[in-house]
Amino acid sequence: MHPIIMSEVAKHRIADWHRQADRDRTARAARAARRKHTSHLRPGHLATVLARRVRAALSAPSVRPPAQPGQAPKATP
Length: 77
Fold this sequence. Notes:
The chain is mainly alpha-helical and 77 residues long. It has one domain (3-56). The protein is 64% helix and 0% strand. The chain contains two helices and no strands. The chain has helices at residues 3-37, 45-58. It starts with a helix and ends in a 19-residue tail after the last helix.
């Protein structure tokens, strides 16, 4: 291939890569914008979850007797 043609082809390839990078950047920004609205990390959410887990871990053990062998466990209300 002639050097001048090779130079032009290289310029067009580089321009294509730059356009693709711009499209990728725009797509990533759009995904990030959508994710911000559905985030589970709201203020106080972590504290609420932690409090529930600590309460569950420290709660008294179940007062129900264990199921007998061959007997299905009872549903909890």
